[in-house]
Amino acid sequence: MGVSMRALALGALTMLAALPATAQRRETPPPQPDPAFVAWRTDFQQRMIREGFDPTLVRNTIGSLVPDPRVTALNERQAEFSRPVWEYLGLAITPQRIQRGRAERASRQALMRALEAAHGVDPDVVLAIWGIESSFGANTGTMDVPRSLATLAWRGRRAAFAEAELRAVLEMLRRGYATRSQLRGSWAGAMGQTQFIPSTYLRDAVDWNGDGRRNIWTDPDEALASTANFLRQHGWIRGLAPLEEVRLPEGFDYALADRSLRPLGFWAQEAGVRTLAGDIPATARIGPTARLMLPAGRAGPAFLAGANFSAILEYNRSDSYALAVTLLSRALRGEAGVRTPWPRDLVTLQPQEVRTLQGALVRLGYDIGEVDGIAGARTRLALQNFQRSQGLPADGFPTRELLNRVLAAAAAR
Protein backbone atom coordinates (compact mmCIF):
# COMPACT_ATOMS: atom_id res chain seq x y z
CA MET A 1 0.00 0.00 0.00
CA GLY A 2 1.08 3.54 -0.53
CA VAL A 3 3.10 2.70 -3.66
CA SER A 4 3.04 5.80 -5.89
CA MET A 5 2.14 5.79 -9.57
CA ARG A 6 5.56 7.32 -10.25
CA ALA A 7 7.24 4.30 -8.56
CA LEU A 8 5.13 1.87 -10.58
CA ALA A 9 6.09 3.70 -13.75
CA LEU A 10 9.77 3.61 -12.85
CA GLY A 11 9.52 -0.10 -12.07
CA ALA A 12 7.91 -0.77 -15.43
CA LEU A 13 10.69 1.14 -17.18
CA THR A 14 13.33 -0.83 -15.26
CA MET A 15 11.74 -4.15 -16.30
CA LEU A 16 11.57 -2.98 -19.92
CA ALA A 17 15.24 -2.03 -19.88
CA ALA A 18 16.16 -5.49 -18.64
CA LEU A 19 14.50 -7.21 -21.58
CA PRO A 20 16.58 -8.15 -24.63
CA ALA A 21 16.41 -5.63 -27.45
CA THR A 22 14.56 -8.08 -29.68
CA ALA A 23 11.88 -8.58 -27.03
CA GLN A 24 11.46 -4.83 -26.66
CA ARG A 25 10.99 -4.48 -30.41
CA ARG A 26 8.37 -7.22 -30.39
CA GLU A 27 6.51 -5.44 -27.62
CA THR A 28 6.38 -2.09 -29.51
CA PRO A 29 6.17 -2.81 -33.23
CA PRO A 30 6.31 0.27 -35.46
CA PRO A 31 3.01 1.31 -37.02
CA GLN A 32 2.49 -0.10 -40.49
CA PRO A 33 0.96 2.01 -43.26
CA ASP A 34 -2.25 0.96 -44.92
CA PRO A 35 -1.53 -1.82 -47.48
CA ALA A 36 -3.42 0.19 -50.09
CA PHE A 37 -1.06 3.11 -49.49
CA VAL A 38 1.96 0.85 -49.79
CA ALA A 39 0.61 -0.47 -53.10
CA TRP A 40 0.09 3.07 -54.38
CA ARG A 41 3.55 4.16 -53.18
CA THR A 42 5.24 1.20 -54.88
CA ASP A 43 3.37 1.81 -58.12
CA PHE A 44 4.16 5.53 -58.09
CA GLN A 45 7.87 4.89 -57.51
CA GLN A 46 7.98 2.42 -60.39
CA ARG A 47 6.28 4.91 -62.69
CA MET A 48 8.72 7.68 -61.77
CA ILE A 49 11.71 5.38 -62.36
CA ARG A 50 10.31 4.41 -65.76
CA GLU A 51 10.06 8.14 -66.56
CA GLY A 52 13.78 8.44 -66.02
CA PHE A 53 14.18 9.63 -62.45
CA ASP A 54 17.16 8.18 -60.61
CA PRO A 55 15.97 5.15 -58.58
CA THR A 56 17.97 6.24 -55.52
CA LEU A 57 16.42 9.72 -55.65
CA VAL A 58 12.94 8.24 -55.91
CA ARG A 59 13.45 5.79 -53.06
CA ASN A 60 15.07 8.36 -50.77
CA THR A 61 12.25 10.84 -51.38
CA ILE A 62 9.21 8.58 -51.40
CA GLY A 63 10.18 5.06 -50.32
CA SER A 64 9.61 5.49 -46.58
CA LEU A 65 6.62 7.83 -46.67
CA VAL A 66 3.49 7.01 -44.69
CA PRO A 67 0.14 8.85 -44.79
CA ASP A 68 -0.28 11.92 -42.61
CA PRO A 69 -3.75 11.90 -41.00
CA ARG A 70 -3.51 15.64 -40.37
CA VAL A 71 -3.48 16.25 -44.12
CA THR A 72 -6.70 14.29 -44.64
CA ALA A 73 -8.41 16.22 -41.83
CA LEU A 74 -7.23 19.63 -43.02
CA ASN A 75 -8.23 18.84 -46.58
CA GLU A 76 -11.81 18.56 -45.37
CA ARG A 77 -11.99 21.98 -43.76
CA GLN A 78 -10.16 24.62 -45.79
CA ALA A 79 -11.03 27.96 -44.23
CA GLU A 80 -11.66 29.74 -47.53
CA PHE A 81 -14.25 27.11 -48.45
CA SER A 82 -15.69 26.09 -45.07
CA ARG A 83 -16.22 29.49 -43.40
CA PRO A 84 -18.66 32.24 -44.36
CA VAL A 85 -16.81 34.81 -46.43
CA TRP A 86 -17.12 37.51 -43.77
CA GLU A 87 -15.51 35.24 -41.16
CA TYR A 88 -12.70 34.33 -43.53
CA LEU A 89 -12.05 37.99 -44.31
CA GLY A 90 -11.97 38.77 -40.60
CA LEU A 91 -9.24 36.19 -40.11
CA ALA A 92 -7.26 37.22 -43.18
CA ILE A 93 -7.41 41.01 -42.78
CA THR A 94 -6.52 41.94 -39.22
CA PRO A 95 -5.23 45.26 -37.82
CA GLN A 96 -1.94 43.53 -36.99
CA ARG A 97 -1.53 42.24 -40.55
CA ILE A 98 -2.34 45.66 -42.01
CA GLN A 99 0.18 47.33 -39.68
CA ARG A 100 2.90 44.80 -40.53
CA GLY A 101 2.12 45.07 -44.23
CA ARG A 102 2.46 48.82 -44.18
CA ALA A 103 5.81 48.51 -42.41
CA GLU A 104 7.02 46.04 -45.05
CA ARG A 105 5.71 48.36 -47.76
CA ALA A 106 7.71 51.27 -46.34
CA SER A 107 10.93 49.28 -45.94
CA ARG A 108 10.81 47.73 -49.43
CA GLN A 109 9.90 50.73 -51.57
CA ALA A 110 12.76 50.20 -54.02
CA LEU A 111 11.84 46.55 -54.51
CA MET A 112 8.15 47.38 -54.96
CA ARG A 113 8.95 49.95 -57.65
CA ALA A 114 11.27 47.49 -59.39
CA LEU A 115 8.67 44.71 -59.37
CA GLU A 116 6.01 47.03 -60.75
CA ALA A 117 8.36 48.16 -63.51
CA ALA A 118 9.48 44.63 -64.37
CA HIS A 119 6.15 42.81 -64.20
CA GLY A 120 3.47 45.50 -64.32
CA VAL A 121 1.79 44.19 -61.18
CA ASP A 122 0.30 46.06 -58.25
CA PRO A 123 3.01 45.68 -55.56
CA ASP A 124 0.42 45.95 -52.80
CA VAL A 125 -1.31 42.84 -54.16
CA VAL A 126 2.04 41.02 -54.01
CA LEU A 127 2.50 42.17 -50.41
CA ALA A 128 -1.05 41.08 -49.57
CA ILE A 129 -0.40 37.58 -50.92
CA TRP A 130 2.76 37.41 -48.80
CA GLY A 131 0.81 38.50 -45.74
CA ILE A 132 -2.05 36.04 -46.21
CA GLU A 133 0.09 33.09 -47.26
CA SER A 134 2.69 33.20 -44.49
CA SER A 135 2.09 36.27 -42.31
CA PHE A 136 5.04 37.93 -44.06
CA GLY A 137 7.30 34.92 -43.68
CA ALA A 138 6.51 34.17 -40.03
CA ASN A 139 4.68 30.90 -40.79
CA THR A 140 5.84 29.02 -43.87
CA GLY A 141 4.70 25.61 -42.65
CA THR A 142 6.45 22.70 -40.95
CA MET A 143 4.85 19.69 -42.65
CA ASP A 144 6.83 17.43 -44.94
CA VAL A 145 5.78 18.36 -48.49
CA PRO A 146 6.38 14.95 -50.12
CA ARG A 147 4.45 13.24 -47.33
CA SER A 148 1.56 15.69 -47.63
CA LEU A 149 1.36 15.27 -51.38
CA ALA A 150 1.61 11.48 -51.12
CA THR A 151 -1.31 11.49 -48.67
CA LEU A 152 -3.41 13.63 -51.01
CA ALA A 153 -2.44 11.51 -54.03
CA TRP A 154 -3.51 8.36 -52.21
CA ARG A 155 -6.66 9.70 -50.58
CA GLY A 156 -7.77 13.15 -51.64
CA ARG A 157 -10.24 14.99 -53.83
CA ARG A 158 -7.60 15.74 -56.46
CA ALA A 159 -5.40 12.66 -56.62
CA ALA A 160 -4.06 13.29 -60.13
CA PHE A 161 -3.14 16.86 -59.18
CA ALA A 162 -1.27 15.70 -56.07
CA GLU A 163 0.62 13.04 -58.05
CA ALA A 164 1.69 15.67 -60.58
CA GLU A 165 2.94 17.88 -57.74
CA LEU A 166 4.86 14.99 -56.19
CA ARG A 167 6.50 14.41 -59.55
CA ALA A 168 7.41 18.13 -59.60
CA VAL A 169 9.11 17.64 -56.20
CA LEU A 170 11.32 14.97 -57.77
CA GLU A 171 12.10 17.37 -60.61
CA MET A 172 13.08 20.10 -58.14
CA LEU A 173 15.43 17.70 -56.39
CA ARG A 174 16.85 16.38 -59.65
CA ARG A 175 17.70 19.91 -60.81
CA GLY A 176 19.22 20.82 -57.45
CA TYR A 177 16.73 23.62 -56.76
CA ALA A 178 16.11 22.42 -53.21
CA THR A 179 17.39 19.94 -50.68
CA ARG A 180 15.19 17.27 -49.15
CA SER A 181 15.28 19.07 -45.80
CA GLN A 182 14.00 22.30 -47.36
CA LEU A 183 10.78 20.65 -48.49
CA ARG A 184 8.68 21.82 -45.57
CA GLY A 185 5.43 23.64 -46.01
CA SER A 186 1.66 23.46 -45.73
CA TRP A 187 -0.61 20.43 -45.59
CA ALA A 188 -1.42 21.05 -49.27
CA GLY A 189 2.22 20.93 -50.40
CA ALA A 190 2.82 24.70 -50.69
CA MET A 191 6.27 25.99 -49.78
CA GLY A 192 8.17 29.14 -49.00
CA GLN A 193 7.25 32.65 -47.98
CA THR A 194 4.57 33.02 -50.64
CA GLN A 195 3.59 29.32 -50.63
CA PHE A 196 4.33 28.01 -54.11
CA ILE A 197 3.30 24.48 -54.96
CA PRO A 198 6.13 22.54 -56.64
CA SER A 199 4.92 22.92 -60.24
CA THR A 200 4.46 26.66 -59.70
CA TYR A 201 7.99 26.86 -58.35
CA LEU A 202 9.36 25.13 -61.44
CA ARG A 203 7.43 27.42 -63.77
CA ASP A 204 7.34 30.82 -62.06
CA ALA A 205 10.04 31.15 -59.37
CA VAL A 206 12.78 33.59 -60.40
CA ASP A 207 16.38 34.30 -59.46
CA TRP A 208 15.83 37.96 -58.63
CA ASN A 209 19.23 38.70 -57.08
CA GLY A 210 21.26 36.79 -59.67
CA ASP A 211 22.97 34.38 -57.27
CA GLY A 212 21.98 31.32 -59.30
CA ARG A 213 19.25 30.23 -56.88
CA ARG A 214 15.48 30.70 -56.67
CA ASN A 215 15.21 30.96 -52.91
CA ILE A 216 11.57 31.40 -51.91
CA TRP A 217 12.25 29.92 -48.46
CA THR A 218 14.53 32.44 -46.73
CA ASP A 219 14.81 35.34 -49.20
CA PRO A 220 11.66 37.51 -49.05
CA ASP A 221 12.68 39.60 -52.06
CA GLU A 222 13.03 36.51 -54.20
CA ALA A 223 9.69 35.17 -52.99
CA LEU A 224 7.97 38.48 -53.77
CA ALA A 225 9.61 38.68 -57.19
CA SER A 226 8.49 35.14 -57.94
CA THR A 227 4.92 36.03 -56.96
CA ALA A 228 4.97 39.11 -59.18
CA ASN A 229 6.16 36.94 -62.06
CA PHE A 230 3.39 34.43 -61.31
CA LEU A 231 0.71 37.11 -61.58
CA ARG A 232 2.13 38.45 -64.84
CA GLN A 233 2.33 34.96 -66.32
CA HIS A 234 -1.31 34.38 -65.37
CA GLY A 235 -2.74 37.38 -67.12
CA TRP A 236 -2.24 40.40 -64.86
CA ILE A 237 -2.90 43.63 -66.79
CA ARG A 238 -0.96 46.72 -65.76
CA GLY A 239 -3.03 49.50 -64.23
CA LEU A 240 -6.31 47.64 -63.67
CA ALA A 241 -7.99 47.01 -60.33
CA PRO A 242 -9.14 43.45 -59.58
CA LEU A 243 -12.74 44.35 -58.77
CA GLU A 244 -15.28 47.07 -58.06
CA GLU A 245 -18.10 47.01 -55.51
CA VAL A 246 -21.44 47.74 -57.20
CA ARG A 247 -25.14 48.28 -56.54
CA LEU A 248 -27.81 46.16 -58.22
CA PRO A 249 -31.21 47.55 -59.26
CA GLU A 250 -34.57 46.42 -57.95
CA GLY A 251 -35.78 43.27 -59.68
CA PHE A 252 -32.25 42.31 -60.74
CA ASP A 253 -31.82 38.88 -62.36
CA TYR A 254 -29.39 37.20 -59.96
CA ALA A 255 -28.87 34.36 -62.44
CA LEU A 256 -26.44 36.74 -64.20
CA ALA A 257 -23.97 35.93 -61.41
CA ASP A 258 -22.96 32.82 -63.37
CA ARG A 259 -19.20 33.55 -63.68
CA SER A 260 -19.61 34.66 -67.29
CA LEU A 261 -17.48 37.59 -68.45
CA ARG A 262 -19.64 40.28 -70.04
CA PRO A 263 -18.80 43.74 -71.44
CA LEU A 264 -19.13 46.62 -69.00
CA GLY A 265 -21.65 48.13 -71.40
CA PHE A 266 -23.92 45.16 -70.76
CA TRP A 267 -23.70 45.58 -66.99
CA ALA A 268 -24.38 49.31 -67.16
CA GLN A 269 -26.94 49.55 -69.94
CA GLU A 270 -28.81 46.26 -69.95
CA ALA A 271 -28.47 45.03 -66.36
CA GLY A 272 -28.62 48.44 -64.67
CA VAL A 273 -25.57 47.83 -62.48
CA ARG A 274 -23.90 50.88 -60.95
CA THR A 275 -20.78 51.49 -58.89
CA LEU A 276 -21.24 52.88 -55.40
CA ALA A 277 -20.34 56.25 -56.89
CA GLY A 278 -23.35 55.94 -59.18
CA ASP A 279 -22.06 54.88 -62.60
CA ILE A 280 -19.78 52.56 -64.57
CA PRO A 281 -17.58 54.82 -66.69
CA ALA A 282 -16.39 53.58 -70.08
CA THR A 283 -12.83 53.52 -68.77
CA ALA A 284 -13.67 51.59 -65.61
CA ARG A 285 -10.74 50.55 -63.44
CA ILE A 286 -11.37 46.84 -63.86
CA GLY A 287 -11.11 46.57 -67.65
CA PRO A 288 -13.53 46.12 -70.56
CA THR A 289 -15.19 42.92 -69.32
CA ALA A 290 -16.15 41.59 -65.91
CA ARG A 291 -18.22 38.95 -64.15
CA LEU A 292 -20.70 39.57 -61.38
CA MET A 293 -19.74 38.10 -58.01
CA LEU A 294 -22.12 37.61 -55.07
CA PRO A 295 -19.93 36.02 -52.37
CA ALA A 296 -22.78 36.04 -49.82
CA GLY A 297 -25.67 35.70 -52.24
CA ARG A 298 -28.26 38.36 -52.90
CA ALA A 299 -28.29 39.45 -49.24
CA GLY A 300 -24.69 40.67 -49.30
CA PRO A 301 -22.32 42.90 -51.28
CA ALA A 302 -22.02 42.62 -55.06
CA PHE A 303 -18.86 43.08 -57.11
CA LEU A 304 -17.78 43.22 -60.72
CA ALA A 305 -14.55 41.23 -61.02
CA GLY A 306 -12.17 41.73 -63.93
CA ALA A 307 -9.11 40.08 -65.44
CA ASN A 308 -6.79 40.85 -62.53
CA PHE A 309 -9.16 39.21 -60.08
CA SER A 310 -8.94 36.11 -62.27
CA ALA A 311 -5.13 36.32 -62.09
CA ILE A 312 -5.29 36.24 -58.28
CA LEU A 313 -7.66 33.26 -58.48
CA GLU A 314 -4.89 31.32 -60.23
CA TYR A 315 -3.04 31.49 -56.92
CA ASN A 316 -5.95 29.99 -55.01
CA ARG A 317 -9.23 29.16 -56.74
CA SER A 318 -11.42 30.63 -54.04
CA ASP A 319 -13.36 33.85 -54.47
CA SER A 320 -12.99 34.43 -50.73
CA TYR A 321 -9.20 34.21 -51.01
CA ALA A 322 -8.96 36.54 -54.02
CA LEU A 323 -11.33 38.97 -52.31
CA ALA A 324 -9.16 38.92 -49.17
CA VAL A 325 -6.01 39.61 -51.19
CA THR A 326 -7.69 42.51 -52.99
CA LEU A 327 -9.11 44.07 -49.82
CA LEU A 328 -5.86 43.67 -47.87
CA SER A 329 -3.93 45.34 -50.70
CA ARG A 330 -6.35 48.28 -50.51
CA ALA A 331 -6.06 48.45 -46.74
CA LEU A 332 -2.28 48.76 -47.07
CA ARG A 333 -2.90 51.95 -49.08
CA GLY A 334 -5.46 53.22 -46.59
CA GLU A 335 -8.42 52.67 -48.92
CA ALA A 336 -11.89 51.69 -47.73
CA GLY A 337 -12.98 48.07 -47.62
CA VAL A 338 -16.39 46.61 -48.42
CA ARG A 339 -19.12 49.17 -47.76
CA THR A 340 -22.25 47.04 -48.10
CA PRO A 341 -22.90 45.14 -44.84
CA TRP A 342 -22.38 41.38 -44.79
CA PRO A 343 -25.45 39.28 -43.84
CA ARG A 344 -23.86 37.98 -40.65
CA ASP A 345 -27.12 36.49 -39.38
CA LEU A 346 -27.38 34.23 -42.44
CA VAL A 347 -27.02 30.53 -41.57
CA THR A 348 -24.50 29.04 -43.99
CA LEU A 349 -23.76 25.37 -44.57
CA GLN A 350 -20.97 23.25 -43.14
CA PRO A 351 -19.02 20.95 -45.50
CA GLN A 352 -21.07 17.87 -44.57
CA GLU A 353 -24.27 19.78 -45.26
CA VAL A 354 -22.87 20.86 -48.62
CA ARG A 355 -22.24 17.20 -49.43
CA THR A 356 -25.85 16.44 -48.55
CA LEU A 357 -26.97 19.30 -50.78
CA GLN A 358 -24.76 18.11 -53.64
CA GLY A 359 -26.07 14.56 -53.34
CA ALA A 360 -29.66 15.80 -53.53
CA LEU A 361 -28.85 17.94 -56.58
CA VAL A 362 -27.34 14.89 -58.29
CA ARG A 363 -30.53 12.91 -57.56
CA LEU A 364 -32.48 15.74 -59.20
CA GLY A 365 -30.34 15.40 -62.32
CA TYR A 366 -28.01 18.37 -61.92
CA ASP A 367 -24.32 18.15 -62.81
CA ILE A 368 -22.30 19.37 -59.85
CA GLY A 369 -19.09 17.48 -60.56
CA GLU A 370 -17.67 15.71 -57.52
CA VAL A 371 -19.60 15.49 -54.24
CA ASP A 372 -16.83 17.04 -52.18
CA GLY A 373 -18.43 19.38 -49.64
CA ILE A 374 -17.21 22.49 -51.48
CA ALA A 375 -19.82 24.81 -52.97
CA GLY A 376 -17.78 25.62 -56.05
CA ALA A 377 -18.81 27.07 -59.40
CA ARG A 378 -20.62 23.97 -60.66
CA THR A 379 -22.56 23.47 -57.45
CA ARG A 380 -23.64 27.12 -57.40
CA LEU A 381 -24.66 26.98 -61.07
CA ALA A 382 -26.75 23.88 -60.34
CA LEU A 383 -28.35 25.73 -57.42
CA GLN A 384 -29.17 28.65 -59.69
CA ASN A 385 -30.87 26.30 -62.14
CA PHE A 386 -32.81 24.72 -59.28
CA GLN A 387 -33.85 28.14 -57.96
CA ARG A 388 -35.08 29.18 -61.41
CA SER A 389 -37.11 25.97 -61.67
CA GLN A 390 -38.77 26.88 -58.36
CA GLY A 391 -39.39 30.53 -59.22
CA LEU A 392 -36.82 31.69 -56.64
CA PRO A 393 -34.20 34.46 -56.96
CA ALA A 394 -31.34 32.54 -58.59
CA ASP A 395 -28.25 33.69 -56.67
CA GLY A 396 -26.89 30.15 -56.22
CA PHE A 397 -25.87 30.77 -52.62
CA PRO A 398 -26.22 27.66 -50.41
CA THR A 399 -28.22 28.36 -47.26
CA ARG A 400 -30.03 26.11 -44.78
CA GLU A 401 -33.38 27.17 -46.24
CA LEU A 402 -32.24 26.31 -49.77
CA LEU A 403 -30.87 22.96 -48.58
CA ASN A 404 -34.27 22.07 -47.15
CA ARG A 405 -35.98 23.00 -50.43
CA VAL A 406 -33.59 20.85 -52.47
CA LEU A 407 -33.98 17.91 -50.09
CA ALA A 408 -37.77 18.18 -50.27
CA ALA A 409 -37.69 18.25 -54.06
CA ALA A 410 -35.38 15.23 -54.19
CA ALA A 411 -37.60 13.28 -51.75
CA ALA A 412 -40.65 14.01 -53.89
CA ARG A 413 -39.16 12.51 -57.05
Can you walk through the features of this model?
The protein has 413 residues and is mainly alpha-helical. Among the domains are: 243-305, no CATH class; 351-412, Muramoyl-pentapeptide Carboxypeptidase, domain 1 (Orthogonal Bundle), CATH 1.10.101. It is 52% helix and 5% strand. The protein is built from 20 helices and 7 strands. The chain has helices at residues 5-18, 21-27, 35-51, 55-62, 69-75, 79-82, 85-92, 95-107, 109-119, 123-134, 145-154, 159-175, 198-204, 220-233, 264-270, 307-313, 319-332, 351-363, 377-389, 400-412, and strands spanning 143-144, 184-185, 243-247, 262-263, 274-275, 289-293, 302-305. The strands form 2 sheets. It has a 5-stranded antiparallel β-sheet with strand order 4-6-7-3-5. Helix 7 packs across helix 17 (319-332) and helix 13 crosses helix 14.
What secondary-structure arrangement, pairings included, does this model have?
Blueprint (H helix, E strand, L loop, with lengths): L4 H14 L2 H7 L7 H17 L3 H8 L6 H7 L3 H4 L2 H8 L2 H13 L1 H11 L3 H12 L8 E2 H10 L4 H17 L8 E2 L12 H7 L15 H14 L9 E5 L14 E2 H7 L3 E2 L13 E5 L8 E4 L1 H7 L5 H14 L18 H13 L13 H13 L10 H13 L1
Question: Which short descriptors sum up this protein?
Answer:
two-stranded antiparallel sheet; 5-stranded antiparallel sheet; 20 helices; Muramoyl-pentapeptide Carboxypeptidase, domain 1; 413 residues; disordered N terminus; mainly alpha
